[in-house]
Amino acid sequence: MSKNCYKLDDRILRRTKYVFVDTKEHFYIRYSQRYGIRLRRVREYAKDGTDVRLIFCCVHKKDNPAFHRMLKDIQNSAILCGYKDYDSFCRMLQAIVNVV
Known about the structure:
Layout: E1 5-7, E2 15-23, H1 27-35, E3 39-46, E4 52-60, H2 64-80, H3 85-99
Antiparallel strand pairs: 1-2, 2-4, 3-4
Helix pairs in contact: 1-2
């Protein structure tokens, strides 16, 4: 499985900025509530015709361990629900991040 999350430049006190991959079913909403994670400044970007989304957000630093468990659940749920392009989208994001 490919990495589905990247930490962004972090200049906010007590928060960490992330970008991660999710689906049109918004698994992150369900799992953030389950784990009690407070996501702030959530922005969603999607290309027309795809079921995969990029989610930009800020996470309280004390919620980081639960956030990483949530990401693993999102990735497993996306694969189990049959999102075939999820893993390739993660690899594409990984290639972009490695170039920059």
